[in-house]
């Protein structure tokens, strides 16, 4: 019998819509600047960049409907609403035409960002983890299986704060589509069942204040709510 020096952490997991099953999460990959209008608002030319990725830690996931504390060490917390892709299978060097075979389902996520810390890291040429991979930094809705909704390639994606619209876009505006994201990621990492991909955010990202209520969604997939205490 294996004996650990202290009890191991529980497996991060997300609910599956319409089921009592949980989806165990392995890794969280995020696609940077995948909507042209967001790339422009961040000061970049979307026509010149191949896809790039960063990671969040699986234990930063929080469910829709949660209330979280305003994060430490930041005065500029930002919202980024995103389609989330959940993988049921993995591999390396996956061809684009086979990539969708790996997908279990889809959800709606918030890539919360300590923008001031991220900006400082960029200036110094340092990694972004302090701006992205912090506690409660990856709220996510329940996952909806492909069998129920197919593979959404278009549809409204939005975020409101306290009822006021902040982000509006359509999935068809993504520069790199879901099969291309999966195929490219699989050349860089060995993908595995349980991996999540946060697929990028439309323009309109901005600050969150203490006490704000966030409501976002992706048409045909679902919605997410979050309160910042």
From TrEMBL:
The keyword GTP-binding does not apply. Pfam families: FAA_hydrolase. It comes from the Bacteria. Keywords: Hydrolase, Metal-binding. Residues 28-228 form the Fumarylacetoacetase-like C-terminal domain. GO terms for molecular function: acetylpyruvate hydrolase activity; metal ion binding. InterPro entries: Fumarylacetoacetase-like_C, Fumarylacetoacetase_C_sf. The keyword Hydrolase applies. This is Fumarylacetoacetate hydrolase family protein. It comes from Xanthobacter dioxanivorans.
